[in-house]
Amino acid sequence: MGGRGQNTTTDMNPVISIIMPAYQAGNSLETAVASVKKQTCKEPWELLIIDDGSTDQTAEIARAYAAADTRIHFLQQKYNKGPAAARNRGLLAARGRYVAFLDADDWWDEDKLKLQMECIRRTKAVLCCTGRELMQPDGAPAGRMIPVPGRITYQMLLHTNVIPCSSVLARIDAIREFGFVHDECHEDYILWLRILKKYKTAVGVNAPALKCRLTSGGKSRDKLKSARMQYGSYRYLGYGRIKSLYYMIFYTVNGFRKYMG
User: Fold this and answer.
1) pLDDT (0 to 100) of residue 186
2) Whole-prediction pTM value?
């Protein structure tokens, strides 16, 4: 982990640990980090940036942030291992009671964590997500908002993934209980299903507090790859071929509605 900076920020024990995997994120990391630093949430937080074997300037930029702000810490994977391994590395180092995830090519509205902490305290939920606004690769609005329901159950989630990873705020003990597994599938989707199977429900803040960049290699752009990963997720969770195909029908229809309007 990178050294602690010399600024005047009080290094109190964080309530929220924000885990940010970053791979070849030199052009987007500044926007993501700035959105964390602008949060209006009064709870103390820490940001763990995990460079996942980047070959661009990602590590240099992240290291500079860690040197300048005691709330920001830098971890580095020698080789690219994928987002699941990077997030798990962050979970090992996290000190907060709650954990949030933010990919380095996405960013948040300034009230995002505040709204979620209020929702969690009101509902006692273990996991809270938000709606999102889709953005072009250059950061311009893509003209599409994707809402979330106020209450999310295991059966609802089987039909389509309404929980964007970069929008999640959750109790860290619930996340650590299962962790991120199997990058060849939707590793975050598998985790949310496991949590909901045990804890029954999650909650959503139906506001586009997450700005989600549609990168050229992202899952949401490569529909065939995403579908294969979705089917693999069902199979990994123990569903047979017929049941997996049954849920894939709902996934396909809901995916079309989600991204095409």
Assistant:
1) 85
2) 0.89
